[in-house]
Every structure is written in structure tokens, then in C-alpha cells.
Design brief:
The chain has about 260 residues and is α/β, with parallel strands linked by helices. Helices cover about 40% and strands about 25% of the residues. The relative contact order is 0.16. The protein binds S-adenosylmethionine.
């Protein structure tokens, strides 16, 4: 059912989503609050990396996971086996949901960025939300990225990576649009928040961890970039060397902001 997708569905990518979930959880869940909710709909749930965290943080929650990839859902079932009585799964395109119940909460993370019609996705979910349901979305804002020193190979790769996402119908800056998208979908009480990283040589260990994470994230797009002819194998290596060299610069800076939006139905 899935269409061409920036990160692909290979096992390494499925493991990357779990590692990413662990690494970013302290940032993502410092603000999100689903207390009082019991029945949550998660759109673009992937291999269940966020679902696992949601189940742990809010023990009252039952979660319905929707993803259009059979492969992701099969892996999610394994990853969430520890709570199998609290999760259910639907293989559907999020633009055209066909569900059987109403939900008092909606969660979306790193998924609208890949969906060509994000308002349609939100409208589709809205049909299954109770009045007053809590909605939290966390999404990328790739134009917020700043790296010092500004190295040409990593810049070229990053531009190609974002270009590929756009050509596949996604939006690498969808985070910046979350408030507008929520408004268009008819949600109220909209709040916009920012989270992210501003790292430098004052915390070299954290900077190193982030550069490692970032390299793996960017490389997850490599097969698609090669296939689209947007980048060569040599340019992938050069991007990696650039990112390794950042750590050696006494003025190194890594800055990135993601966006979180809250609303009610
Ligand atoms: C980057 S992954 C994020 C997964 C999970 N939210 C997380 O944070 O680990 C995006 C997921 O959205 C799914 N996806 C993309 N477009 C979709 C669509 N139109 N309908 C349903 N799922 C979709 C992909 O299959 C993928 O599993």
C-alpha cells in the first residue's frame, strides 16, 4: 500500500526509528500531556517507537496505530508485544481513514512531513475525534538548521535530501505550518511550541552524539537519493567526512528546531 517514502522500510531504518525515539524522547515528551485520555489515535505510527513511549508515560491509554506500510506495522506488533492488549493496528492511508470508534486524543510525530495532503489527513482524523479531544503533533522544520562551519558537501547533501522529500510529496518545513494546518482542519485552542538543539564545544559529548545521530538520519535518505540521481556514492562519503570534521572545529555549532503544536477538537 505504501508509496515511495524518503526513509524506506529496510530493517536498518526500522531500527533507526527506535533509536531516534529513545534519543529524542526527553525533548518530545517534556511538554506533551495526555493525562485524562484513554483512547488515542496515532497516525503514521511506523514501528511503534513513539507508541512505546506513549504507553509507558500514560498507563491508562489504549492506542490505535495507523500506518500505510505493512512492513512497519509488522515490526510495530513485535515492538509493542509487551502491551498487546492496549494496542491495535490499521494498515491505511492516513488521508482516507476508515475506523470503527471515536478517540479522545490524537498524536502525530515525524509523519505529516511525508504526507502530500496534510490538511486532508487532519480532517480525516477529525471525523473520529470526540468533542474536546486533545491533539499533539511534532514535526520537522528543516530550514531552521544551522551548522558552523558551513561545509559545502554536507550542505549539498542536505539540500538534495530536502529536495527529495519535496519531490515525494512531503514538506521538510511542515512544522512551521502546523498552526495553519490545525486551523484549516477546524481545530481550536491552538498553541505552537519549539524544541530542539543548540549545541557547541561547551558540551562536546552532546555535540558528538547529535552529529552521529544527524549523520545516520541523513544517510537514511541515501538509497532514495542515489536512485533519484540527486547524489553520488562519493558525495555521501564527503557529507559524512564534513560532519566528522565539524567536531574538530573549536567554533562548532549545531542548531535545529522542531515544532510541536497542541489543539483541541
Ligand atoms: C518517519 S516515520 C515516523 C514513525 C513514528 N511516528 C516515529 O516517530 O517513529 C513516518 C511514518 O509515516 C508513514 N506514512 C507516510 N505516509 C503515510 C500515509 N499517507 N498514511 C499512513 N502512513 C504514512 C510511513 O510509513 C512511516 O512509517
Amino acid at each position: 500500500m505504501e508509496e515511495a517514502y524518503l526513509h524506506g522500510f529496510i530493517p536498518e531504518e526500522q531500527q533507526r526509528l527506535l533509536d531516534q525515539g529513545n534519543y529524542l524522547a526527553p525533548k518530545i515528551y517534556s511538554r506533551i500531556d495526555f493525562s485524562g485520555c484513554t483512547n488515542l489515535l496515532e497516525i503514521g505510527s511506523g514501528v511503534g517507537a513513539q507508541t512505546r513511549e506513549l504507553l509507558r508515560l500514560w498507563p491508562e491509554l489504549r492506542i490505535t496505530c495507523v500506518d500505510y506500510s505493512e512492513a512497519q506495522l509488522a515490526q510495530a506488533k513485535k515492538n509493542l508485544a509487551f502491551a498487546e492488549d492496549r494496542v491495535s493496528f490499521y494498515c491505511q492511508d492516513a488521508r482516507d481513514l476508515k475506523l470503527e470508534e471515536q478517540f479522545d486524543s490524537l498524536f502525530i510525530c515525524w509523519a505529516l512531513e511525508h504526507m502530500p495532503e496534510p490538511v486532508r489527513v487532519l480532517e480525516s482524523a477529525k471525523k473520529y475525534l470526540t468533542k474536546g479531544a486533545k491533539i499533539w503533533a511534532t514535526e520537522v522544520f528543516n530550514s531552521s538548521f544551522y551548522l558552523y562551519p558551513d561545509l559545502p558537501n554536507q550542505r549539498k547533501y542536505y539540500e538534495a535530501y530536502n529536495q527529495l522529500q519535496i519531490s515525494l510529496g512531503g514538506d521538510p518545513d511542515v512544522g512551521a505550518q502546523l498552526g495553519n494546518l490545525f486551523k484549516k482542519a477546524g481545530f481550536g485552542s491552538i498553541e505552537i511550541h519549539h524544541g530542539g538543539f543548540h549545541l557547541d564545544q561547551s558540551k562536546p559529548d552532546e555535540l558528538q552524539k547529535m552529529l552521529h545521530f544527524w549523520t545516520i538520519l541523513l544517510k537514511s535518505g541515501a538509497p532514495g537519493l542515489l536512485e533519484a540521481g540527486l547524489i553520488t556514492a562519493k558525495e555521501i562519503e564527503e557529507m559524512e567526512s564534513d560532519l566528522i570534521s565539524v567536531l574538530k572545529d573549536e567554533n562548532a555549532v549545531f542548531f535545529y528546531q522542531f515544532v510541536q503544536a497542541f489543539a483541541t477538537n
